[in-house]
Amino acid sequence: MAEYPSVGLALSTVGRPLLTELLASAAASTRLPAAVAVADHTPNRDLTIRGDYTFPVVVVPSVGGVARGRNDAAAALSARCDVLGFPNDDCLFPPATIEQVSHAFAGPQSPAVVAGTLLDASGPRMRLPAAGTALDRRTVWRAIEPAMWVRREVYEGIGGIRDDLGTGSDSPWQSGDGTDLLLRIMADGGSVRSRPDIVVSGRGERRDLTPDAFVAKHRAYARGTGYVFRLHSYPLRDQLRLVLAPLVKVSTHDASLALSARVAAARAVGRIEGLAGRPLHGRKLTWL
After folding, report:
1. Residues 195-212 pLDDT 10s
2. pLDDT surpassing 80 at residue 111
3. Cα 243 to Cα 8, 70, 228, 247, 271, distances in angstroms
4. For the chain, which domains are there?
């Protein structure tokens, strides 16, 4: 491997125009990506990438959720890079980010994964521990996919991301794909290091949903969290904390107290569903 490893970007898209801005920010970086692969989920048309870039941009068709798209994009990069990043299609890179990532993976003691900060207008999406800290089974939940950087050989060796988890998958478990990947890497002996100083800019959560759809989204995401706790055999005390956590802070999920309470209940129920390994159905839950 080179002294400073090469970095590739693997992402999924449904054809959002903001993808062009992401590529422009990568092109303005102090170190360019080795290549970018875009898994295209755009229905009924082929994605056209506009712009003249000094790095290869490969588009591959993909069906299914974000996790499958990231796997398809990573496969398209093949041996073009040493390190993989998984930005959302509406992210932006500060100029030094890719260079910082390359340096973070240099040297014989470098980690399997680097967890950076996803920063939007409201601040960091998750608060990471101090730079250089090894994440454990508790703190690994603070790592978030768009600011996650994985050594390619480790990613391929572990079998990539489980595509039956995460947003858009065919399963009820609509989150947890990135955390599951990191937990599997850690169980295999790889280290995940915190680097809060390595920043990817995000656009924040989109709230163009009705209240019912917003609550349903939170429940589906919570199912994924609970299911990953189940897959990785977290102890009962941690499972109880997981279920109770949304209820303890019942007023913090939305500015509307009524909607915040619905979201809190939906997240608690969703986590129970994930821990049980099956969704609950019936009229008794329609109030969510």
Report:
1. 999 999 998 766 678 999
2. yes
3. 37, 29, 13, 8, 6
4. 7-201 (3.90.550.10), 211-285 (no CATH)
Structure tokens at 35: 């290549």
**Mean pLDDT across 89-114:** 95
φ/ψ of 78, rounded to 5, equals 50, -125
How far apart CA 28 and CA 93 sit, in angstroms, is 9
Give me 187's structure tokens: 């169980």
Rounded CA-CA distance 176/239 in Å is 15
For the purposes of burial, counting CB atoms within 10 Å of the CB of 60, is it exposed (0-12), middle (13-18) or buried (19 or more)? Answer: middle
Task: Name, in order, each residue with C-beta under 8 angstroms of 262's C-beta and a sequence gap of 6 or more.
Answer: 211, 215, 288
Q: Which residue has the tokens 């990191």?
A: 182
Q: What are phi and psi of 252, to 5 degrees?
A: -100, 0
Taking the C-alpha atoms of residue 158 and residue 130, their distance in angstroms, rounded to an integer, is: 27
- The answer to whether 39 touches 57, Cβ cutoff 8 Å, is no
% of the chain exceeding 90 in pLDDT: 82
Say whether 166 sits in a helix, a strand or coil. coil
Task: Work out the average pLDDT over 122-144.
Answer: 96
Task: Dig out the tokens for 142 from the structure.
Answer: 């603070």
| Euclidean distance between CA atoms 46 and 43, whole angstroms | 8
